Amino acid sequence: MTILILGAGQLARMMSLAGAPLNLNVVAYDVGSQQIMHPLTGEVYKTTLEQAIESADAITAEFEHIPDDVLTLCCNSNKFYPGKAAIKTGGDRSLEKALLDKTQVACAPYQLITEKAHLELAVKNLGKPLVIKTCQAGYDGKGQWRLKSDDQIAQIWSEMAEFIASGAEDAPHSIIAEKMIPFDREVSIIGARDKQGNVAIYPITENEHTNGVLTLSIAGKNNQQIEQQANDAFTKIANELNYVGVLAIEFFDVNGTLLVNEIAPRVHNSGHWTQQGCHCSQFENHMRAVAGLPLGNTQLKHITAMINVLGQPSIPNGVLKTSDVTSHWYGKTAKPGRKMGHVNVSAESINDLADKLGELTDYLPEQDYPGILKAATNLMLCE
Ligand code: ATP
Ligand code: MG
Predict the structure, then answer these.
(1) Residues with Cβ within 5 Å of ion ligand 2?
(2) Which of 13, 66, 115, 200 is least surrounded by Cβ atoms within 10 Å, i.e. has the fewest?
(3) How far is the centre of ligand 2, averaged over its atoms, from the C-alpha of 271 (Å)?
(4) Which residues bind ATP (predicted)?
């Protein structure tokens, strides 16, 4: 069976690695160069997108910012999962908020902005500070402003106006202002839904972001208090979208109440730990779902932490001295802050994970891998 993935980055690469043992052959469409290629070797094929669509058994995507004509072409084949509506919703915060309102899943209070009066309304109704985000085209904290005082309004508005004006008639740009949530922590839920509507959900992941980018995830802590809320939100949203594949939802945990931050209609960085932490990884489950195969086991096998490697030329070999550490390298050219790879660390207990994270700080310095020591200390305290 051949699966065509829109996007040829690390997520396509890891789906390809997960699909191979299932006899699923993956080809990727690089949206930038408009070429069909092998997601692992980068070998470029002489195939056109139309030919690749024709010869694929199923089509999926590794990101949500895909040109509309490409999405339409894929949808018309009736082989595209999770479908155009889900991808569009994940790529537009205004559609995402509408979906949350419709399914009655709680999120941060917000105000849509297309003109200056809406920004003033947001300041009046939501208060300060505000987190302001472009509805389209944002990722990894890009396309965001923090409004803390009234004297920032003019400057921020001029930048917002530029973004709004750069939209096209058939693809308008808008902005959303959200109340800044004083969360205790950020968590996410990853799960899969198959073509028959069966759902399999992974345990909650706790996520640490630095400058808007995920740096560390931990799965396997006791999250009993919020597990049901997260699973309910997942099921409501996945069912509403008639979703097929892996879906990720990021939340703010405010004193035991979850507010949705974002929905990602794809495998997600905060689910990379499942490669070692579960019997069936998020990548394998996404491949299974879109290929029409039964979903795999999402139960926790090992408490696992994932550390992102950002902007580094390689993963220090020393980390492999710590037992139960696996290295995942994406084979990309290094640029400051770019996601280059990740390291998964599995453990028998929370204390064991704290010890292993402590050991890893010998090889992973704080300035390049922030928050590992703090996470190790917190884990010891929570036992
Ligand atoms: P991603 O790479 O996850 O798609 P993104 O660029 O789409 O990131 P968000 O997830 O919306 O952006 O925001 C990035 C981070 O900024 C969040 O993980 C959170 O730490 C912080 N943040 C976003 N919105 C809020 C809010 N309303 N209140 C407090 N913090 C926020
Ligand atoms: Mg996010």
Answers:
(1) 262
(2) 115
(3) 13
(4) 93, 133, 138-144, 178-181, 186, 209, 261-262
